[in-house]
């Protein structure tokens, strides 16, 4: 039987039962494009720290006396060193984990963080910015659907950034995905860790390509209905039929602009990508 709580190098972790969580946004407006598509992620059983690592805990892990704010100053080298120490401790411990799986200590992925929050295992504090295991990406195309970390896809300075979960300054229930550079010392970050099974085999990922044909047809339809048609109908109904013929270019351009603006904030919701739908 799986343990409800485990301890690694003096750090306590609580079990989070396996379950599904939905990540992303399915609202159709283009201002939500970076948060789409909404998709299901199935997380296995894992263990999470209920609070980010404290100065005292970090000092104990490193076996050295740290100074104030050391627990909120992070870079890639320091983060990797801490995780390596904890993984070595995990290998040497008898934590009561499922022996049929291989386990690792790391930062949580976004899906693990959200699943732990929904399960009531973590209680984020206002103003915190917690480090995640995911790389930075422009949207959720290609995202992992089994809770494993997403790797950086491409080149450029963003490869040195990591995704973070940022908590609202005054409302702990509100959080948003952001990022932070770790190629240099970065203050104001918090480190919460998980003990999680290492996923094996090829992952299920959110399809990398959208249905562009359907999206274009939808955009043409709603731009016509919400922008172009009213642009011509309003002067006609006001008795300005001559202008409909003589100024059709202006009316068409105005209708397209209105349609574009409405597309920023509203379009029909997009389908949610379910785990079982992906090959």
Descriptors:
279 residues, alpha+beta, paralog of FGE (formylglycine-generating enzyme), 2 domains, three-stranded antiparallel sheet, elongated
Describe the structure in brief.
30% of the residues lie in helices and 19% in strands. It has 6 helices and 12 strands.
Provide structural commentary:
- The protein is an alpha+beta fold and 279 residues long.
- The protein has 2 domains: 5-197, paralog of FGE (formylglycine-generating enzyme) (Alpha-Beta Complex), CATH 3.90.1580; 212-277, no CATH class.
- The protein is built from 6 helices and 12 strands.
- It has helices spanning 55-62, 76-92, 110-118, 212-237, 241-246, 248-265; strands at residues 5-8, 11-16, 19-23, 39-43, 46-48, 73-74, 103-106, 129-131, 161-167, 175-181, 186-187, 194-197.
- A hairpin with a 7-residue loop joins strand 9 (161-167) and strand 10 (175-181).
- It is elongated, with a radius of gyration of 24 Å.
């Amino acid at each position: 039987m799986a343990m409800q709580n485990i301890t690694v190098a003096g750090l306590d972790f609580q079990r989070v039962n396996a379950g599904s969580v939905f990540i992303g946004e399915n609202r159709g407006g283009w201002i939500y494009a970076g948060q789409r598509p909404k998709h299901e992620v199935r997380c296995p059983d894992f263990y999470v720290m209920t609070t980010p690592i404290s100065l005292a805990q970090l000092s104990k892990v490193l076996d050295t006396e740290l100074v104030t704010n050391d627990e909120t100053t992070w870079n890639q080298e320091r983060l990797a060193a801490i995780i390596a120490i904890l993984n070595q401790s995990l290998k040497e411990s008898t934590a009561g984990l499922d022996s049929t799986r291989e386990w690792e200590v790391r930062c949580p992925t976004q899906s693990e963080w959200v699943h732990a929050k929904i399960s009531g295992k973590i209680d984020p504090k206002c103003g915190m910015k917690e480090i995640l295991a995911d790389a930075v990406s422009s949207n959720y195309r290609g995202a992992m659907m089994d809770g494993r970390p997403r790797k950086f896809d491409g080149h450029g300075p963003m490869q040195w950034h990591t995704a973070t979960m940022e908590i609202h300054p005054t409302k702990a229930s509100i959080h948003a995905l952001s990022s932070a550079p770790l190629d240099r010392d970065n203050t104001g970050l918090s480190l919460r860790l998980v003990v999680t099974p290492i996923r094996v085999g090829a992952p299920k990922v959110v399809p990398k390509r959208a249905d562009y044909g359907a999206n274009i047809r939808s955009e043409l339809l709603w731009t016509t209905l919400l922008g172009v048609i009213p642009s011509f109908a309003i002067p006609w109904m006001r008795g300005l039929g001559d202008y409909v013929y003589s100024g059709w270019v202006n009316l068409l351009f105005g209708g397209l602009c209105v349609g574009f603006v409405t597309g920023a904030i509203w379009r029909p919701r997009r389908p949610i990508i379910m785990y079982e739908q992906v090959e």
